[in-house]
Amino acid sequence: MTLLGGGFETSAAEQIANWAPGAFVFETLNATGSDNMANAESYPIKPLMLVAGDNADKKPVVMDLVSSLGFDPVDAGPLKNARLLEPFAMVWIDQAIKRGRGRDFAFALVKSNN
To answer: What is the tally of structural domains in the chain?
Structure first.
């Protein structure tokens, strides 16, 4: 079995949870570059940061941590959804490196005024 499991069969986060029974594992802080981690507050709109995990009691703690770093924390559901978040992180990497966007961008969640 590979960590990413090709075809969304598993995720690295789920594998870590399997290796560490009883641990509270969350998938987050993976959809942007390291420079943005230190400078999230520099964006005119808070950058999105998705959080997936199974522990309902601990998730608010993780969401608060993500918020304190300057991100807009968004609940991405159970840890199983890390299967979606891990490939989503590759979109940021592709945009930054292969598409020439550079590293000074982040994704944001915006809603219409309707």
So the answer is: 1
